[in-house]
Amino acid sequence: MSLLLSPIDLGGLTIRNRLWVAPMCQYSAQDGIPNDWHHVHLAQFASGGAGVVIAEATAVTPEGRISPEDVGIWNDAQRDAWAPIAAAIRSRGAVPGIQLAHAGRKASTWSPFAGARGSVPESEGGWQTVAPSAVAFEGFADPTALDLPGIDLLVDAFAAAAVRAVHAGFALLELHAAHGYLLHQFLSPLSNLRTDEYGGSLENRARLLLRIVDAVRAAAPEAVLTVRFSATDWADGGWDAAQTATVAGWAAERGAVFFDISSGGLVAHQQIVTGPGYQVHLASEVRSASGVATGAVGEITSGPQAEAILAAGDADVILAGREWLRDPHFALRAATELGEASAVASELWPVQYQRAIPR
Ligand SMILES: Cc1cc2nc3c(=O)[nH]c(=O)nc-3n(C[C@H](O)[C@H](O)[C@H](O)COP(=O)(O)O)c2cc1C
Q1: What is the CA(131)–ligand 1 centre distance, in A?
Q2: Rounded to whole angstroms, how far apart are CA atoms 263 and 240?
Q3: End-to-end CA distance of the chain
């Protein structure tokens, strides 16, 4: 059997394969409540054979939304709306996951379909953003620096969100510490200029993330806890793969079991070069430096390409975003591309679709 379609055990959970759906914002909610769009969008990937379907960046507080149309999990109405979505993913054989997020200084921005760019003014439904330091992302409104009570409230918000997520039926939680959002803003010396115990040394910059790992672990011990990092800022003097590996190791000691390795998003002047598998080397570096399980993501679009990454020992799991949007049955197709025996394929294919298995 291919590595891609073989099961993986993480945090006591057996996941049917190693081709997962990366979180993807839909900017399609009102009041943070997921709806019919999110239900069909996410459930189709489970029908399409995904091992884990990770729901998009889901805000732990209203101010943590990237855009006013983002989903959230800061109240019980949101939790109750997520429950049938998690159940639909699970009943199709995939593990339901959710990305818990706070956008920090990149919150309160127009959605991609709004026809405007940058920050949403408070007069039009936006809000005052927060960050480790009062330094704006280029072109966005100025954030206020979080004070110590504000940081404590944030830790509590992540823990409460984790409890709601588990009650909604999510088995895997991904803390969003990537793409220039709040937790990444604390990690990177380019955005964290604090002089207290949350800034300066690597230990201090990682303190908030590690407190959240501890708090979520304690509040939701039954969940598989994972973290998404940007393993480089693609900018001089920024966050990098070596720091990511060290902090991933610390998070693993506290009970995080998997690290989804992305990159970038912190500063507008990043020098990023994309192309097929452009972030695989980062997943590989973090995996070999710290011994943690990693996921590779970024322009991975076929079964053979994904299989080669796993066979080379660069990562334990493959995540994909846009390829699932092009083909919601990506894993079924990957099985065919890898020439899997039909016994494996037929286990993955929904019985209702099995007359379509290529023979
Ligand atoms: C429509 C869309 C929305 C996205 N939203 C999120 C998100 O909510 N959280 C996140 O960590 N990454 C987000 N991403 C990044 C993807 O998870 C993924 O890392 C990226 O698209 C690279 O993988 P790909 O080349 O397979 O698409 C988004 C990407 C797309 C295309």
Answers
A1: 22
A2: 9
A3: 17
CB distance 17 to ligand 1 below 6 Å: no
304-308: list long-range contacts, CB under 8 Å, 24+ apart: 304/337, 304/338, 305/276, 305/277, 306/4, 306/18, 306/19, 306/334, 307/2, 307/3, 307/4, 307/338
Q: Which residues pair with 297 in a beta bridge?
A: 319
pLDDT digits (tens, 9 = 90+) for 95-136: 999 999 999 999 999 999 999 999 999 999 999 999 999 999
- Which ligand 1 atom is nearest residue 299's CA? 25
3-state SS class at 241: helix
Residue 156 near ligand 1, beta carbon < 6 Å = no
Q: If you take atom 6 of ligand 1, which residue's CA is the nearest one?
A: 24
Distance between Cα 322 and ligand 1 center (Å): 7
Class of domain 8-356 (CATH, top level): alpha beta
Q: Any idea what the Cα angle at residue 303 is, between residues 302 and 308, rounded to 5°?
A: 105
| Residue 184 token pair | 């990444």
Calpha distance 315→207 (Å, rounded): 26
Average pLDDT over residues 333-348: 84
| Cα 348 from chain centre | 24
Calpha distance 256→250 (Å, rounded): 9
